[in-house]
Amino acid sequence: MDNLTHSLAGAVLGQMGLKNKTGxxxxxxxxxxxxxxxxxxxxxxxxxxxxxxxxxxxxxPIAMLVLPLILTGxxxxxxxxxxxxxxxPADRLPIHKGWLLALAFIGTLSHPALDWLNSYGVRVLxxxxxxxxxxxxxxxxxxxxxxxxxxxxWISRRREKSGGNWQRPAWISFAAxxxxxxxxxxxxxxxxxxxxxxxxxxxxxxxxxVVANPLPVKFWKRAMxxxxxxxxxxxxxxxxxxxxxxxxYQNGKTGTPHMVHHPAVAKAGEIDPEARxxxxxxRMPVVTVExxxxxxxxxxxxxxxxxxxxxxxxxxxxTVPKDRLDEAER
Length: 330
Fold this sequence. Notes:
By secondary structure, the chain is an alpha+beta fold. Helix content is about 45%, strand content about 15%.
């Protein structure tokens, strides 16, 4: 998810009462909720090689143990540093090391939990396993979650200042978001089940992968992405219009070749670091191979981002000399 969502999630956890467990509680929760994204430095590498680094080791089990320990140490040092300089706020609660560590763990763990919800995916077992997993439940930037978090924090803060029950609004916000996520998970499940049934029994296609890609704002809809051994396709799904969905399916085209099995694709991954990183990252590769005489021009895209209007950010083009392929592969 985006870092505003992560920050607001940390703030809601604090307003639920956790921030009063120790000094620097709120700051620890908000920082911890963003901490796994320290891998964002990888974008400085340029190109697309960062795709093979992001949402990997800093989101895995070792990081989930080490990052909270480091953050706790930094926060304890910061509190002591302010005290020695006479700048520690007088109204700050005393540091409780146990609770500070617990909040660092809670905030850090919230990060991959939220990242898992969208279709981009996260490698939660890195470095022990490099498999991408994705919940396909929430769009990567969800305005409804933003609203619930912002309203919950805002009302909670206002009640805190006026002396009211300030924890309740945060708890309501938390419960509403959990219910929203659960409902979206159910929509995704229904969408994938119906699409799989249609592909098998109406289109006579044996799908290898069916993904219900969440859409911005319209949480009740999904862009249904499917793949067979050599074809890919996209359909619309609306939980409120199942009949329209079936009609659209029946009138739509069956699919398009994705060409991922062309020998030039594997060779591109061998000779080009950009292509290698992309092929490691992509979950639903779509490939175009153009014969340019002595070379093949290989264009790599990801089906998940060909519907969102930002596909050009996730495209790799590379040239594969034909003399790098075996005689039979040419």
